[in-house]
Amino acid sequence: MKALIAMSGGVDSSLAAKLTADAGYACIGCTMKLYENADTGKPSSRTCCSLEDVEDARGVACQLGMPYYVFNFTEDFRRCVMDRFADSYRRGVTPNPCIDCNRYLKFDRLLQRAETLGCDCLVTGHYARIQREKGRYVLKKALDASKDQSYVLYMLTQAQLSRLRFPLGDLRKTEVRAMAAENGFLNADKPDSQDICFVPDGNYSRVVELRSGPALPGDFVDREGRVLGRHRGIIHYTVGQRKGLGLSLLEPMYVCRICPDTNQVVLGRDEELWSRTFTVREMNWISGEAPGAPFRCRVRVRYRQAEQWAEVTPTAGGAEISFDQPQRAITPGQAAVLYDGDTVLGGGTIQTVTRRELE
Questions:
Q1: pLDDT in tens, 201-241
Q2: Residue 5 pairs with which residues in a beta bridge?
Q3: CA-to-CA distance for 51 and 53, rounded, in angstroms?
Q4: Is residue 101 among the annotated active site residues?
């Protein structure tokens, strides 16, 4: 059996490579070059595509005695991730570029490259588990709940799951670091990446303007349309935001809605952010089949949010979801992921949110 190992230079993918080699696979290590530093607006920034990371990955591959390659996917990444990221903010929605990277790069382009190299599977350092149950592949949460990455893997299909391996799914992060240290990996204590890879300093609006031009100022308004002040451009704001508005108001106000058609940002009180019902588009069902009737399950609408009980009604290509209890700042553009216990049922992109249903 032959495996292609996606190596970022971090401890997780390094140990995944070690475990795969120990399991008897003939392994090839690789790193995806996703962008030039100039694409981020910070030519000398420390990013996950840095020379240091490539050398860390290459060093581990060399230590394990496996061939190693760097694949240049910069054009695909610009088109499928960075440009989509910028376009989303221009349309007033908040994207999750890590999900797009998984969808279009890691589990599409890289799987294609694995096939070209004659590999039987692609291995990554994701914290999640793949199991075979009743003739189908099942995606489950990782054993280590604090590191679980199942939320950003909801787009995986049966065909992809059949060719993927996640060796870290049954391990805790402390175990991963200890095992890496035991094997003499120099990156055993390397800090985890926390930010969007191409926005290393958190200034995402600079990247949006770099990709699609300057933002146009407009009006902050309340729900009745009264002007409250001027904003710097809708790309600078997300639903639920309070800080950084640059306004002096009589009470705390939050971004409740972003209106690209009128170039307005609607502000309101905290209670106006809470809602139960929303729609989802581009739904992916892990089983490969959409349920034929409404059903109940737990749903997560943020990466680190605890799942909440909801009623899910499948629709053509999507779903309508209604939480039992109101949730704060359900945000268009983010992912809604459905769970049955530890099993991921599927997920999609939040499209519209009903915010006035609680009145």
A1: 788 899 999 898 999 999 999 999 999 999 999 999 999 99
A2: 29, 123
A3: 5
A4: yes
The residue behind tokens 């999507």 is 318
Question: How far does the chain reach from its first CA to its final CA, in angstroms?
Answer: 60
What pTM does this model have? 0.92
Percentage with pLDDT > 90 across the chain: 85
User: Catalytic: 197?
Assistant: yes
- Alpha-carbon span 42 to 207, nearest angstrom: 10
SS3 for 101? helix
Share of the chain above pLDDT 70, in %: 94
Q: For residue 129, what are the contacts with CB-CB under 8 A and spacing of at least 6?
A: 139, 140, 141, 142, 143, 166, 169, 170
Active site residue: 30, 48, 101, 297, which one? Answer: 101
User: Pick the catalytic residue: 30, 48, 49, 197?
Assistant: 197
- Paired with 4 in beta bridges are 28, 122
The token pair that represents 142 in the structure block: 């990782």
Cα 18 to Cα 174: distance, rounded to the nearest angstrom: 16
